[in-house]
Amino acid sequence: MGELESLRTFLTVAETRSFTGAARLLGTTPASVTRTIAALEDRLGVQLLLRTTRQVSLTSAGAGYLERVAPLVRQIEVATEETRSQHGVTAGTLRIAAPMSLGQRVLPAVLSQFAARHGGTHVSVVLSDRFIDIVGEDFDLAIRISGPPADKSTVWRKLCDVPRLLVASPRYLAARGTPQEPEDLTEHDCLGYAEDAREPIWDLSSGARRRSHRAKGIFSANNGDLLADLALSGEGIALLPRFIVAQSLAEGRLRPVLPDWRPPPVWLTLYYPPYERLPVRVATFSDFFEVYVKETRPL
């Protein structure tokens, strides 16, 4: 391993206070990180890190070394990024977080087309429906479907609205009846999108009229595809993004419920760590993804 990569490994261990955490961020193994640090210490002739069963800490020599080399490594990384940017090169690794349903339905085509044009960029995608801390978990960007941003520690870029609607299967509606007003939902099983066991609130509007309904039912989940499958099985009424249920609606396997009543819009948004300037590979993918969404309208 080269000297610069050894220094990057040392900085990552010092920041995470963990060989395992550093290995995860660097895309390698804890054993490899351990060997790299040991080789660096051998070359310097001093111990940089103290290892215990619970954590890793800096020695006094390590703290002094970190203070000297950290700015140098950052300057080299900035110079490398600026040079790539000037020449339109997007080499490197791009780590992206995205929702499960969007990742499975939209990203395959995006990634294939992106790779055809920017083959030098390695794209690592993590699909999760939980709210990911992109700074703490070291992501370059996150794709989110959510309400307007409230996180002030990140930079964001809205791409478009994501339409949502209430749906149920014909079998369920035949057995339980079709709601005519939001108040009728109290007599139905509602399939709520929730991270925990709390019942979500469905805010609905029709013109100037506003109604709120607590979505009570046997099932709730934090994944739209699971809720759609439950709705298809006749388990209740679900409030979901249209792109998840579009095919089932077209095939008649799901039907809109209360079509004159709409939930507040949610956004398709790109979130970034607080960069002073987007790295070229991040900016390139962001622009590519935005053009794809606006041209193909997959949502």
Automatic annotation (TrEMBL):
Highest taxon listed in the record's lineage: Bacteria
InterPro entries: LysR-type_TF_proteobact-type, LysR_HTH_N, LysR_subst-bd, WH-like_DNA-bd_sf, WH_DNA-bd_sf
Gene3D superfamilies (UniProt xref): 3.40.190.290, Winged helix-like DNA-binding domain superfamily/Winged helix DNA-binding domain
Gene Ontology MF terms: DNA binding; DNA-binding transcription factor activity
Keywords: DNA-binding, Transcription, Transcription regulation
Domain HTH lysR-type span(s) in chain numbering: 1-59
Family, similarity comment: Belongs to the LysR transcriptional regulatory family.
The protein, known as: LysR family transcriptional regulator
